[in-house]
UniProtKB/TrEMBL annotation:
<keyword id="KW-0210">Decarboxylase</keyword>
<feature type="modified residue" description="N6-(pyridoxal phosphate)lysine">
    <location>
        <position position="317"/>
    </location>
</feature>
<dbReference type="Pfam" id="PF00282">
    <property type="entry name" value="Pyridoxal_deC"/>
</dbReference>
<dbReference type="GO" id="GO:0030170">
    <property type="term" value="F:pyridoxal phosphate binding"/>
</dbReference>
<dbReference type="GO" id="GO:0005737">
    <property type="term" value="C:cytoplasm"/>
</dbReference>
<dbReference type="InterPro" id="IPR021115">
    <property type="entry name" value="Pyridoxal-P_BS"/>
</dbReference>
<dbReference type="InterPro" id="IPR015424">
    <property type="entry name" value="PyrdxlP-dep_Trfase"/>
</dbReference>
<protein>
    <recommendedName>
        <fullName>Aspartate aminotransferase family protein</fullName>
    </recommendedName>
</protein>
<dbReference type="GO" id="GO:0019752">
    <property type="term" value="P:carboxylic acid metabolic process"/>
</dbReference>
<dbReference type="GO" id="GO:0016831">
    <property type="term" value="F:carboxy-lyase activity"/>
</dbReference>
<keyword id="KW-0663">Pyridoxal phosphate</keyword>
<dbReference type="InterPro" id="IPR015421">
    <property type="entry name" value="PyrdxlP-dep_Trfase_major"/>
</dbReference>
<dbReference type="InterPro" id="IPR015422">
    <property type="entry name" value="PyrdxlP-dep_Trfase_small"/>
</dbReference>
<comment type="similarity">
    <text>Belongs to the group II decarboxylase family.</text>
</comment>
<dbReference type="InterPro" id="IPR002129">
    <property type="entry name" value="PyrdxlP-dep_de-COase"/>
</dbReference>
<keyword id="KW-0456">Lyase</keyword>
Amino acid sequence: MRVRSNNLSPWQQHFIATGPGGSEHYQDAMAQTVAQLAHVFEQADKPYSGLDPVALKQQIEAINLSAAPHSLQQVIQHSAELIAHHSILVQHPACIAHLHTPPMIAGIAAESMIAALNQSMDSWDQASAATYVEQHVVDWLCQTFGYDQHSDGVFTSGGTQSNIMALLMARDWAVDSISQHNVQQQGMPEYSHRLRIVCSDKSHFTVKKAASIMGLGEKAVVCVPTHNNGTIKIDALNQCLNDLKQAELIPFALVGTAGTTDHGAIDDLSALAELAKQHKLWFHVDAAYGGALILSQQNQRLAGIHLADSITVDFHKLWYQPVSCSALLLKHKAHFKYLLHYADYLNREGDYLPNLVDKTISTTRRFDALKVLMTLRTVGKEALGAMIDHLITQTRQVAQLIDEHQNFELLAQPSLSTVLFRYQHPVDAFNRQLRLACLKAGVAVLGETTVNGQAALKLTILNPCLSIENFTNLLTNINEFADSLLQMETC
Ligand SMILES: Cc1ncc(COP(=O)(O)O)c(C=O)c1O
């Protein structure tokens, strides 16, 4: 029963209070927010409104943040009309640029619980049930990826953080193994300038970012060439590792990718694991994009992933969760000791209850695991896996449509759910111009990258609800838009 409290102080109306009637304003605000957003989604006929970016910037800058306050009702309405209405709508069939997913409703419902409960995952006394939920989801993930009882994991803000944490632990483990030197306590050893991370030239840029943040410099990352399909050349990798040792350098980590950002390429993880073992390297698999394949019929394409020392999995990609939601899994939970620091006020040594801050570089941390739990319970792992299988099949069909189109050129056979192509035009920059023009007009939000030195367009197909007609329409629209651009050029 709702008990209406009429005499709230001006400050109380901004908070949820425990006890009868304490959530009345909250309920009204949520109901209004949902109604306004539903209106935005239901009225949308483009992935972006088409408002000129300069005009959008001016309208947002015109919001006076120092002005007298408005009612929350007014602010919700204005935010929906200006901000939501001019947002990139990931749900629209023509929003197809990035690994940026339409979120599942279970995840969105979880997100609103996460916000209102505002648990902080660092310590049990800030996240009682949440601590056990995260651990339960992590245990399920470890098992799903073929890890045993020695494994563990932790939720992170994204693939970037997961990759950084993995390489940080890899470095400290390597230095510990080589010279019993404790990087956490003593800083870098004198031979740190010789440490090397090995990955492919299609690995995500966050491998280099991690090296730079870790004080090794981007020069510490050695990129091995790839085949045309984007997978690492195993012979070249073997040669590279031998060359590095010959040059008295110290390779300590090997990064394999399960789903490169552009090609969706999956490295031969078993071969990489074998080389990592031979050369005593920490083997990290960046499965930010392709990790969800573990749920699909094609999970054998990830064969060998259970041999990795660490795995990055991004739920805000092919697991359809609202940003942000990611995890890092470790084969040997003991390696989390490289991140452990005790603070008197937070996580005392020997605490009776678990404090998840022990396993991460974050302190205050979101309760993102709830989204995965609620999605798995609502949608189920079979349906999630079937969506991935469907996307892979559909991506091949879209690639064929492009291949058969007289004005488009397919640049690579798809591996996961991306299609790399270009509009055939003698001027390379035309494709960049085309992408930007489509974005600004709200015709389509397309990806842009470089393939073999050429400007390329990219479709990243994530939405399992699209039909092949959506793609035929999309390609027709892009083609017509390119025609109109060419006509304007000749005028
Ligand atoms: C292969 C790969 N790894 C890592 C990342 C970084 O992940 P995040 O954006 O979640 O930090 C991405 C992002 O697209 C990616 O494609």
